[in-house]
User: Which sequence fits this backbone?
């Protein structure tokens, strides 16, 4: 038997190995590749969040802290990031970003102090929203970034505060601004 093993050529050994491998092929991986599914779910999640966020701005509750100015405009509001400026806070997409004192921004919250126009917390939040919307644009070309914002401001908002908000929005590439007004003039009427 030892003599037979010595007499076998290298070709015969390779043939025998190939024959045995052919009898028992390696099992193929039949696992589920979940990475494409995870990408799809991420896109759907971002899309759903943006849809719910844009529809929440339509239901605005007026109060003593937020009186919307009266207007006779007939233009319908489209999909845009909602920003509310009340007497005591700036709220972006339902989240309070900054507390105000009688409608004014605290100088410590602005770049450059009291003479500055860039509101730092608003700049950070709008930069985050811009980046998210641009990511959606990359993944869904049918939803381009338009830089649209709906500003819901109290009718007594100081011009300086409104100017600072508009300047900050411009610095974060949100240049398509729409102001929400009240068509009926209810809750005390126009001031």
Assistant:
């Amino acid at each position: 038997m030892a003599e037979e093993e010595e007499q076998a050529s290298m070709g015969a050994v390779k043939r025998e190995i190939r024959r045995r491998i052919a009898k028992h092929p390696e099992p193929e991986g039949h696992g589920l590749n979940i990475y494409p599914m995870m990408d799809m779910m991420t896109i759907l999640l971002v899309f759903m969040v943006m849809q719910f966020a844009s529809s929440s701005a339509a239901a605005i509750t007026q109060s003593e802290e937020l009186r919307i100015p009266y207007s006779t405009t007939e233009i319908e509001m489209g999909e845009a990031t909602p920003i509310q400026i009340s007497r005591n806070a700036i709220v972006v997409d339902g989240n309070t970003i900054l507390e105000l004192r009688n409608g004014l921004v605290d100088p410590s919250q602005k770049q450059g102090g009291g003479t500055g126009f860039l509101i730092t917390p608003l700049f950070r939040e709008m930069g985050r929203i811009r980046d998210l919307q641009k990511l959606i644009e990359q993944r869904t070309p049918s939803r381009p970034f338009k830089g649209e914002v709906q500003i819901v401001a109290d009718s007594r908002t100081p011009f300086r505060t409104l100017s600072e908000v508009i300047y900050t929005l411009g610095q974060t590439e949100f240049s398509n601004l729409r102001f929400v007004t009240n068509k009926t003039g209810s809750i005390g009427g126009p001031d």
